[in-house]
Amino acid sequence: MRNITAVAGRDTLINCRVIGYPYYSIKWYKDALLLPDNHRQVVFENGTLKLTDVQKGMDEGEYLCSVLIQPQLSISQSVHVAVKVPPLIQPFEFPPASIGQLLYIPCVVSSGDMPIRITWRKDGQVIISGSGVTIESKEFMSSLQISSVSLKHNGNYTCIASNAAATVSRERQLIVRVPPRFVVQPNNQDGIYGKAGVLNCSVDGYPPPKVMWKHAKGSGNPQQYHPVPLTGRIQILPNSSLLIRHVLEEDIGYYLCQASNGVGTDISKSMFLTVKIPAMITSHPNTTIAIKGHAKELNCTARGERPIIIRWEKGDTVIDPDRVMRYAIATKDNGDEVVSTLKLKPADRGDSVFFSCHAINSYGEDRGLIQLTVQEPPDPPELEIREVKARSMNLRWTQRFDGNSIITGFDIEYKNKSDSWDFKQSTRNISPTINQANIVDLHPASVYSIRMYSFNKIGRSEPSKELTISTEEAAPDGPPMDVTLQPVTSQSIQVTWKAPKKELQNGVIRGYQIGYRENSPGSNGQYSIVEMKATGDSEVYTLDNLKKFAQYGVVVQAFNRAGTGPSSSEINATTLEDVPSQPPENVRALSITSDVAVISWSEPPRSTLNGVLKGYRVIFWSLYVDGEWGEMQNITTTRERVELRGMEKFTNYSVQVLAYTQAGDGVRSSVLYIQTKEDVPGPPAGIKAVPSSASSVVVSWLPPTKPNGVIRKYTIFCSSPGSGQPAPSEYETSPEQLFYRIAHLNRGQQYLLWVAAVTSAGRGNSSEKVTIEPAGKAPAKIISFGGTVTTPWMKDVRLPCNSVGDPAPAVKWTKDSEDSAIPVSMDGHRLIHTNGTLLLRAVKAEDSGYYTCTATNTGGFDTIIVNLLVQVPPDQPRLTVSKTSASSITLTWIPGDNGGSSIRGFVLQYSVDNSEEWKDVFISSSERSFKLDSLKCGTWYKVKLAAKNSVGSGRISEIIEAKTHGREPSFSKDQHLFTHINSTHARLNLQGWNNGGCPITAIVLEYRPKGTWAWQGLRANSSGEVFLTELREATWYELRMRACNSAGCGNETAQFATLDYDGSTIPPIKSAQGEGDDVKKLFTIGCPVILATLGVALLFIVRKKRKEKRLKRLRDAKSLAEMLISKNNRSFDTPVKGPPQGPRLHIDIPRVQLLIEDKEGIKQLGDDKATIPVTDAEFSQAVNPQSFCTGVSLHHPALIQSTGPLIDMSDIRPGTNPVSRKNVKSAHSTRNRYSSQWTLTKCQASTPARTLTSDWRTVGSQHGVTVTESDSYSASLSQDTDKGRNSMVSTESASSTYEELARAYEHAKLEEQLQHAKFEITECFISDSSSDQMTTGTNENADSMTSMSTPSEPGICRFTASPPKPQDADRGKNVAVPIPHRANKSDYCNLPLYAKSEAFFRKADGREPCPVVPPREASIRNLARTYHTQARHLTLDPASKPLGLPHPGAPAAASTATLPQRTLAMPAPPAGTAPPAPGPTPAEPPTAPSAAPPAPSTEPPRAGGPHTKMGGSRDSLLEMSTSGVGRSQKQGAGAYSKSYTLV
Questions:
Q1: What separation in angstroms does the CA of 283 have from each of 301, 862, 1027?
Q2: Distance between CA 541 and CA 530 in Å, rounded?
Q3: Nearest 5°: CA angle at 324, between 322 and 326?
Q4: What string of DSSP letters covers 1400-1415?
Q5: Which of 14, 426, 763, 1373 is the least buried, fewest Cβ under 10 Å from its Cβ?
């Protein structure tokens, strides 16, 4: 342990540190004594010894620290403590001292360890001997000696003693007293008025002297001084000088500075203060106000030592009146003051600044500030629109300049933009503390002009800038006006109304909601709502599908973009009465007698009456044995039972009962059959008696017209008036036998014969009596009866012709034609039995007619005439659509010919357009219209109708299409799709979907984040809003919607972006550019360039080729026209005899239209026309020269399907012109064809010319048949239909199987025998567009509309016709003019010109059947179009003879030209004429138009002459035909050796 030095009087700590563990105790010892042994000693537990207030004698010495580490073992260590004593300074004091005195101060240390060092300090600085101060130090003492005390010796003196123990000090203050004295004496001085002035006076002494200033007023000798009052203006400075902050004139006088400190005598000194006055402004207005535009004066008064200069400044600019003429300055003296005046003439806004007047003299200057405020009316406020609503707007304004006057208020004015401000509305005296306002009671959807004024006490501002705002729309405030209800039908009410008043519409009326409800008992009272778009000021809507004869209440509401307005008052109307929808119930029939029956029934259910029951109607008709119906009769009654009297006896009756209302007859009950009871029969319908030998006669009779029962037998009565027998003889025969031979009669005696029929009711009335006398020679007599025989078609019919006579008569049957009787020849169809009965197998309509049976023997002849009527199925009705609604289609029709049997009803079939599931509806024969109900809204339907008679169902009408009202949904562009979008949700407004008139059944929504593949789906309804949830924040989405109803589906797409987490929007997506973007760009740009280059090159090549073709067409145009004329000049000299070799006329043109005008105007007569060839054999009967035509009936089978389109007019809609179709559906699909019957006519006399449109179409080739149908029948030989859609019942333009080849002689005015006219081409126009169309072939039929042409139209050649020279060519005798069912004598004139030019359309007598037409100019348009599929031309062997006969009278045979899929037969030269050279074989391909003549064929000639091949032209305009009379052999061969096409 280290020794320790302690300082006496202080505390000391002695530590005994022990390292190690454990130990038991630590103890301290001094001088072997265990410590502590007194109160100043403390031993701590850690072994530390503390000595308090150490004493040198007692505490100094050795100390021992003993540590017990084991019970019997301890360790110890000692430490020596030395105690040192610090110095102790005895107290000392400084006595009072005066300047000049001697001073001795001792500093004695009374105790402390030596050595001790003593030093002195003054004010903390070490004192060094010198300057009158001496320090003397000894061992324990030091003294301070001052030889002469002065002020500098003042201070604090410190004696410091230090030894090894400590340093101590003692401090005392020395104070030296000095009497006062002047350091600076006061002197006379000048003070400047208003400025600060200091009167100098500085004194010294200790204690510091006290200075007092005194003042004696006046400039004379001072009489009396008064202490200067020390105020804020006058103060004594620390250096004893007097400070006058603002020298005043009253400060003039003597001033005395007096100082004293109690040491010595007081001192004082006086001075005189003179006050000088500087230039000063004594009077000026601080603020003043001027009115803009008025004069204003500013005055400024100054005083001070003269001279004084006054200067005016505006702001920082000195005013120079010589430069600014608006200012003037005037100065004048006013006693000791100077007054300066500044005049403003007049005051302006720029004068609202600080003006200053400056007064200047030698002693100073002063400035007076004048704040001039120029007041004026305020500037108008700046107005802005914060918010505009439907009926209010929020304005905010800012007042920029108030005119230096407090704003006292604001005025707001507004008006309709179209009005003048004279009709303004105002909001006045708005508080100036308000800077915004709401203008209310505005009218929605109006345009307003708004302006504003501000006011102060000066006046009103100018108006603010005029703002124009448009208020938003609001729901209408008024209901629709003049709502009226008009029942239209039993299920519809027409609602009419006018728009709400203009001032109540509050916007654009977008549409209306019509609410209707049934007010009948038991109804739920809920309104059904339909919506329609607004169309104008007056609206009409028809409510459909209502209950019949029910009361409905209707209200109408208008709506705009903002909402729906109030509804109109409910108006009630009752639907019209309708016919009962159910028949009477429990219908019963009971036959009472042979002519009386009782019918009873019960009332239909009340709910089905649909009106007020007026009564019942019983309909009944008889059904005859032959299948015919009797006249339909009806009886009306109000009872539920009726007795039918006067009925035919033993007759089957059909009975129906119906209820009727004011609207008409209701549904008939099911047919109830009843048969009247038997009665005695009527007399036989006829009776004959003829002698058969000298002793016998034969009597024959007809069954009774009214058998009134089942004939059981016949009774024949024979009486001889001269024989004397009272009763006649009676003979009986079976009911099947209608003749009887009575023998054993007397020759030469007359007999009376009569017959009576017998039924179970008894014998009926007798026939008339005939007288007969047996004869030795019996001339031929027919015992069968003539008359009318009616039979259904396709049945075997027997026409009896039983004859008697001696010798046996010969029987011959003939059939009457118009002018002759044709013998009936026996063949597979006709057979004459040995008894004279004519058997006709499977009769057809053409078998109808008058048949004459003639029985002849040597004694004479007898005849009967039988009129055979063959009943056929009825002709097709003409079906049209009269009305459509959203759920119904009303059809009307005109029945066709009934086929000889009354129509028993109609079968209506309908289906959805794209379906083949047909539904049947059976309609009564008396109906001519029908309403199809409960149909789908906005859907196309196909409808067809067929009539039915006793023979069967007739041909089905043309299929028409009709569409119920309505369309697919669409989304309104006026509606906002999204009403709210945040970061995770989007709300969609689905009310923007317009249902198109059909209720929306489903809405499907799909959405996905942009750039992803998977769509999320959601189904909703259109009633309100839908939420898209769980969206990603700050993401662009794609949305697509699909709304569907029965009419179809509508689509809508949109994009939207969700908000960021903080509600901010995100920017649009920019396409990211990857590494391959350059390649993509290059590919994107390069592909179109390459394709465009290829396209241009291809177009150039095509146009070049077309140009070459057009040039060729132009060169050949005139040649073609001449060929057309030469074609029309051809004729036959002699008609062909013998069987037909195929069609005589083959107009090989898919579609040609001819229109001829006369003075009476244009009348369209035909639809699709063609012809059926007829040979001379069919006209072999004698001709009546006075009649025009001889008719022959022809029945031909249906054409097979491979023949292409027949007369397919099924695409024609009612009321439309079939010529106007632009397309016809491709006809390759399977078609059901009917067999048909046509009446062909051979014309003989001229008839007036008619105006017609002939639309020719070629048909199949294998049968060589073409068909003509009249527009009056709207004929259709095909059941399928084209899907034409134009409005509800429309004509669709369909595409044809062939490209249209020609439009011929459009609006041409022709002269007589135009075919012989001379043509000159005057001008031709051919354009690229026309050639493009004409040279493009297609495999579809194309019908084109005949239109007016002008020479400037593309593809037109104009021709001029001149009168021809008379020619005497013979006309063909056989003319086939096919008209369905009925021949028309004027139809020869209806044939196309090139058809009438053919030989077998010419009369033998050379007379032309059509009258002369004055010469007209004819224009031809688009006569031909080229085909791209095959070589469409005509090629003949130029080495062959002309196809026509060389001169009149030469007989002809037939030569055949074969076309692909078609056969064309033409007359061939007779046996004595050199035959034409054979053409190429059928296998040889067609040649080009200008090709060399083909090689002769090795095939042997057929049908009397060689074949001539017509190269592959299915549609060649120039038919193979005979050349005109008088043409040379060379001309005939060369004129047709080349194909021509005119565009």
A1: 5, 166, 81
A2: 10
A3: 115
A4: GGS-TT---SS-----
A5: 426
Nearest CA to 228 out of 257, 206, 208 is that of 257
Model pLDDT, residue 1249: 33
pLDDT of residue 624: 82
Counting every residue written for the chain, the total comes to 1543
Q: Which residues contact 1129 (CB under 8 A, 6 or more apart)?
A: 1315, 1316, 1367, 1397, 1523, 1524, 1525, 1527
Distances (CA, A) of 1229 to 917, 1222, 1267, 1370: 18, 20, 20, 45
**Bridging pattern class, strands 713-719 and 729-733:** antiparallel
**Token pair of 1125 as six digits:** 């004329």
- Residue 316 near residue 397, CB atoms below 8 Å: no
Amino acid 561: pLDDT: 86
Neighbours of 652 (CB within 10 A): 15
Sheet holding 382-388, edge to edge: 382-388, 393-398, 436-439
pLDDT of residue 1114: 62
pLDDT < 50 regions, the chain: 1072-1075, 1118, 1121, 1124-1543
How far apart are alpha carbons 1001 and 1183 in whole angstroms? 72
Answer for the pair 986, 978: CB distance below 8 angstroms, yes or no: yes
Sign of the torsion angle spanned by Cα atoms 1389, 1393, 1397, 1398: negative
C-alpha distance from residue 1347 to each of 257, 465, 1306, 1307, 1422 (Å): 137, 63, 8, 9, 11
- Segment (H or E) for 1334: helix 1328-1334
Pairing of strands 697-704, 684-691: antiparallel
User: Whole-angstrom Cα distance, residue 935 to residue 722?
Assistant: 83
Bond preceding residue 807 cis, omega within 30 of 0: yes
SS3 annotation, 499-539: CCCHHHCCCCCCEEEEEEEECCCCCCCCCEEEEEECCCCEE
Q: Containing H/E element for 771?
A: strand 770-772
Question: Which H or E element spans position 1124?
Answer: helix 1077-1129
pLDDT of amino acid 1535: 31
Please name the amino acid found at residue 364. Answer: G
DSSP letters spanning 990-1058: GGGEE-TTS---EEEEEEEETT--PPEEEEE-TTSEEEE-SPPTT-EEEEEEEEEETTEEEEEEEEEEP
pTM above 0.70, yes or no: no
Between CA 479 and CA 1063 the distance in angstroms is 41
3-state secondary structure of 399: coil
Q: How far is CA 1323 from CA 1114, 1153, 1356, 1360, 1415, in A?
A: 10, 22, 8, 10, 19
pLDDT score for 1252: 31
DSSP label at residue 829: S
pLDDT digits 0-9 by tens, 1338-1350: 333 333 333 333 3
Identify the pLDDT of residue 1025. Answer: 76
Query: Under 8 Å CB-to-CB from 1539, ≥6 apart: which residues?
Result: 1432, 1433, 1434, 1435, 1489, 1513, 1516, 1518
Per DSSP, what are the bridge partners of residue 1237?
1195
Burial of 1061: CB neighbours in 10 Å, binned 0-12, 13-18, 19+: exposed
Q: What is the DSSP letter of 1365?
A: P
- Residues 157 and 154: their CA atoms lie apart, in Å, by 9
Output the six-digit token pair for 1216: 């439309």
CA distance 647 to 641: 17
What one-letter code names the amino acid at 56?
A: K
Structure tokens at 174: 């020395």
User: Cis before residue 22, ω within 30 degrees of 0?
Assistant: yes
Sheet holding 176-184, edge to edge: 97-98, 176-184, 202-206
- Integer angstrom CA distances of residue 540 from 26, 262, 491, 494, 544: 125, 127, 16, 7, 13
Closest to 461 (Cα-Cα) out of 378, 585, 385: 378
pLDDT of residue 1081: 66
Q: What is the DSSP letter of 1159?
A: T
